[in-house]
Amino acid sequence: MKIKRQKQSKKTTSFYKYNFCFREPYQILIDGTFCQAALKNKIQIKEQLPKYLMGEVQLCTTNCALKELDTLAKNLYGAKLILQRFQMRKCKHTKDPVPASECLLSMLEETNPHHYFIASQDRELTTALKKIPGVPLLYIILNTMVLDKPSESSLKHVEAVQLGRFVTPTQQSSIQTRKEKEGLSKDRNDNRGKKRKRKSSNPNPLSCLKKKKKPMPQQPQKTDREKKKQSRHRKRKPAGGKEAAVSSNPTTA
């Protein structure tokens, strides 16, 4: 029977792990009714609860839960001593304490962002908790601690997320961080359309310098021999060869 209960608790905790991002150490908010039931049934909360959930836990309570035990009967003094050993979580009712059930509901807000487990025997509180998705409930029955199955609101919430109708706060934060890494954040898109004003600065001193004139390439000077070669002209020979030369000379006749 004990193995069967542990398998059921493991199945339920894994449901909250994968769908609502619960992580160890589990934070468990406890009220006076749960401590009174544990004292009556001789259950060691600090020893047995980590074994039952198969993980590290942080047992905590609020100031309102302690104040409520002060106002009730003296037979709850043992429950108060147990509750005082746990860590204190700050609530909004430091000046004006409220009933423990109301205080624990205010700690959960609308979506249980701090991932609290609730350990209580209060029936009004448990019925109100089932309307909030992602809230694991612990109670004591027949000398044993029991982790309740996920409520209808939690199951419907998970179904809506899987169908894409709803985005969880953790998914929203992961999407936002991914956008910032890829440069798709809203602030960057707003600044993209705006023109940046150039700062007035002094001119570059190198640009103020006058440009140096490049020297023209000088042609190599010609030597005297090259000049003589260019000035020499070839004489043309007269037509008719030697006969024309003899006829032209009168002394030969």
TrEMBL record:
Origin organism lineage: Eukaryota, Metazoa, Chordata, Craniata, Vertebrata
Primary location group: nucleus
Protein localization: Nucleus, Nucleolus
Sequence ranges of Basic and acidic residues compositional bias: 177-192
Keyword Nucleus in record: yes
Originating organism: Cirrhinus molitorella
Domain UTP23 sensor motif region: 194-213
Function, as annotated: Involved in rRNA-processing and ribosome biogenesis.
One Pfam family per UniProt: UTP23_sensor
The protein, known as: UTP23 sensor motif region domain-containing protein
Family statement: Belongs to the UTP23/FCF1 family. UTP23 subfamily.
Compositionally biased intervals (Basic residues): 228-239
UniProt keyword annotations, A-Z: Nucleus, Ribosome biogenesis, rRNA processing
Gene3D superfamilies membership: 5'-nuclease (3.40.50.1010)
Protein's UniProt keywords contain Cell cycle: no
Stretches the record annotates as Disordered: 169-253
